[in-house]
Amino acid sequence: MRIVIIGGGIAGLAAGIFAQRAGFDSVILEQHSIAGGLCTGWDRKGFHIDGCIHWLTGTRPETDLYRLWVETGALGNTEVYQPDVFTTVEHDGETVMLYRDLDRTREHLLEVSPDDRAEIERLIDYTRRFFSFQMPCGKPFDLMSIPDRIRLGMSMKDLRPVMKDLGKITLGEYVERVKHPAIREALRSGVVETYSAYILLFTLATFMSGNGDRPAGGSRALAKRMEERYIDLGGKIELRREVKEIVVREGYARGVLLADGTEVYGDYVVPTCDTHITIQRLLKGEYTDRGFEEKYANHRAYPLFSCIYASFGVDSDLSAYPADLVFQATPFAFEDGSRDQLSIKHYCYEPSFAPEGKSVVIAYLHASYDWWKQKRENMDAYGAEKTRLGNDIVQRIEARFPELRGEVTLLDVASPVTYERYCGAYRGAFMSFGITPEAKNLNHDGRIKGIKNLYMGGQWLMPPGGVPAALVTGKWAVQRICRAEKIGPFP
Ligand SMILES: Cc1cc2nc3c(=O)[nH]c(=O)nc-3n(C[C@H](O)[C@H](O)[C@H](O)COP(=O)(O)OP(=O)(O)OC[C@H]3O[C@@H](n4cnc5c(N)ncnc54)[C@H](O)[C@@H]3O)c2cc1C
Question: In sequence order, what are the beta bridge partners of 3?
Fold first, then answer.
C-alpha cells in the first residue's frame, strides 16, 4: 500500500519514517532542492547561517518527545548544547538575565527589583508548575480513548492555577503587573506580546527544565539526519518535485499531479505543506474547512508572524559575549517606521558554523509580510532596502560593541518573502497561528470533509507550530492511516 507525502519538511520526513516503519511503501515529493523545509540553514562566505532552531523542545531524555526525536534519527548520538542563559536584556542602564537555573533567576530578579517580590515569586511558581508538563505526542486526540483523555487531563492538574490566572490575558497585559521596566522588557522578549501569557511560562519552563536546547550541527543537519533515517528505512524522497494538484476521484484522494505533468498515484495522500497551499491551491479551493477558514480570516485571534532574519560574519570569537542579547539602539528606519531595539544571537557554541576565531551573528526583527511583498515588486529597491537595513544593524552592533568596529560584515538578509519563496511558507510565517486568549479549537484532525484517504500533517494543525508540532502531526497522519487500515499496534 502506497502513501504519497507532499513536502519534505520535518512533518513530511516524520510521516515518511513512520509510514516505512508501519510497513507502507512511501514517497516524499519536495519542491525544493533540499529537504527540511523551514528547518534549514544556508552557507555564506565560509559561514553557516542556521535558519531555524533556537530551541528544540524535546531534548530532555525522560520525555516522550525526546524518544520520538531519537526514533526519527534527529537526536540520539547528537550532542546537545545547553546555554546557561535564556536571554539577556539591557534596558535603560539595567541588565536582566533569565537563567537556566530557576532559583538563580528568582534571586537575580529579586535583586533587580525587590518591589516586585510578589509577582516574581508567582512567576517562579508558575514556571515550575510547567516543568512536568509534556506535549501530548502518543496518540492524536481523535484516537484517544476515554481513559487516555482522563490521563491527559490529570497530567495538567498542576497547571490549573496558572490557567485560571493567566488563561485569558495576553503576555502584554501580564507584564504590566511587573513594576520594573527592565524586567518587563525581559519577559516581553520571551514570546510575542499578543500571545496568551501562559505561553511565556511554558517556554521558560521548557528551557529551564533542560527540554529546549540546541542540537549540534543545527537545523539543516537535524533535517538531514531525519532524511537519512527515512532513506535507510527504504523510503524514497524526490526533490525538485512540485505538486500542483491533489487528484480526487469519487471522494477519494488517488494521488497527485506534479507541475511537470507527471501523475503519482497512491492509496493515501499526506499533504504536509502549509494547509493554505493544500486547501486553496492543491485542492483548488473546492473543499471548505470551517476551522481553517476562521483561523485564516481572524487575524486578531489567530495572528501570524514573519520576520527579517539578518546575518553577519564577525572577525572575532564572541564566545565571551552574551549569546542571546536584546539591547537598545539609536533608532533606525524599518518599513514605514523605525525601531530602537535589537535582538541578536551568536552561535559560538557550534564550531562548524564559522571559521576558527570568527563568529556568526543573527539579528531578528518581526516584520510585515505585506510591506516586504510590495517592496519586492521592484527587485532593485528590495535588494537596496535589505542592504541598507543590514548596514544600519551593523552600525548599531558596532555602537554597542565598539571593539568590533570594522569586524562585522553583512552576509545576508532574509525577508518574509524569502521564506515564502523557498519554503512555501504562508505569508512568510515562521510558525503557525499564534495562541491568543481568543483562540479556540486549536488542534485539527488533519481530515478534509468530503475526501477520504487524505490525512494532513504539519505545524498548521497544531498552533503555535514549531518543529515538535511538525514531528508529531506527521506521525499522527500515519497513525490515523494505520487506524483506517486496522494496522496495529502502531510501531
Ligand atoms: C527564523 C525561524 C526560526 C524558527 N525557530 C524555531 C525554533 O527555535 N523552534 C521550533 O520548534 N521551531 C522554530 N521555527 C519553526 C519551524 O521551522 C517550523 O515550525 C517547522 O519547521 C515546520 O515544519 P513543517 O514540516 O510543518 O513545514 P515546512 O517546514 O513549511 O515544510 C513544508 C514543506 O513542503 C514543501 N512544499 C510546499 N508546497 C509544496 C508543493 N506544492 N509540492 C511539494 N512540496 C511543497 C516546502 O518546500 C517545505 O519543504 C522557526 C522558523 C523560522 C523560519
Answer: 26, 268
Inform me whether the pLDDT recorded for 384 exceeds 80.
yes
Q: Judging by DSSP bridges, how do beta strands 243-249 and 252-258 pair with one another? A: antiparallel
The 8 Å CB, 24+ separation contacts for 335-341 are 335/367, 335/368, 335/371, 335/372, 336/371, 339/365
**What is the C-alpha to C-alpha distance for residues 69 and 226, in angstroms, rounded to an integer?**
9
What order do you get walking across the sheet with 236-238 strand by strand?
Answer: 236-238, 25-29, 2-6, 268-271
The finding on whether 37 has its CB within 6 A of some atom of ligand 1 is yes
pLDDT at 104: 98
pLDDT at residue number 443? 86
Whether the CB of 6 sits within 6 Å of ligand 1: yes
The mean pLDDT of 19-36, rounded to a whole number, is 97
Counting atoms of ligand 1 from 1, which one is nearest the CA of 55? 8
Q: pLDDT tens for residues 424-470?
A: 899 999 999 999 999 987 889 999 999 999 999 999 999 999 999 99
Q: Where are the alpha helices (DSSP H) in 262-404?
A: 275-276, 290-297, 369-375, 379-400
Q: Check if 412 has its Cβ closer than 6 Å to any atom of ligand 1.
A: no
What pLDDT sits at residue 195? 93
Of the candidates 419, 339, 412, 410, the residue with the CA atom closest to the CA atom of residue 372: 419
